[in-house]
């Protein structure tokens, strides 16, 4: 079965070109010219990946991304954006997007990035083993892509999960920001290491919501981050 992609793009000329290219390369495409219809369609089933324009007329693309991920946390998302500022790229990655393509772009480049993301996710799913790991107060369920803290499930985004998992699997090891970027965000071009700091901050807040004590994620100034050997 062909993977189903959603394209949320309000410019018909751009949408037509992308749809033609994506369908000619083996994808099904459902087109939305606004964000709200996509949100309304999500309960009927999520696509394999969503391609979102940032400058939509009814809802900001970043907000649309947040709302889609709130309902389907594992949904891969690629942004189409006319903006090239570092802040805009950073926002997109921080809220959970997998990649971004700046306009003007080659439709085949978009197709190639989509295929790369889906291939990587498929490989991760095949490699997952039904294994539970215990790390002090943490329980890591790799098959279910879930982590519990003091026996309470943590509400993690995909990147928060991958980041915390990376730290837990090597307790006591100090990872530099670049090492974490290479491990967790390896597929996103020109990823910014500031996004690591933001994700660490949100992880600590979620840990404190369960246990008000000091979270076992440690900052090593000038070096990076680690978790305690016995968190």
How are the SSEs ordered, and which strands pair?
Blueprint: E1 4-8, H1 12-24, E2 28-32, H2 36-41, E3 49-53, H3 61-71, E4 77-81, H4 86-94, E5 99-102, H5 107-127, E6 132-135, E7 138-141, E8 146-149, E9 152-153, H6 158-168, H7 177-184, H8 194-210, E10 217-220, E11 224-227
Parallel strand pairs: 1-2, 1-3, 3-4, 4-5
Antiparallel strand pairs: 6-7, 7-8, 8-9, 10-11
Helix pairs in contact: 1-5, 4-8, 6-8
Describe this structure in words.
Residues 130-229 form the OmpR/PhoB-type domain. One of its GO terms (cellular component) is protein-DNA complex. The modification 4-aspartylphosphate is found at residue 53. The protein is of the alpha/beta class and 231 residues long. It has 2 domains: 4-128, Rossmann fold (3-Layer(aba) Sandwich), CATH 3.40.50; 132-227, Arc Repressor Mutant, subunit A (Orthogonal Bundle). It is 42% helix and 20% strand. The protein has 8 helices and 11 strands. The strands form 3 sheets. The protein has a 5-stranded parallel β-sheet, sandwiched between helices. A 4-stranded antiparallel β-sheet has the order 6-7-8-9, covered by helices on one side. The mean pLDDT is 87.
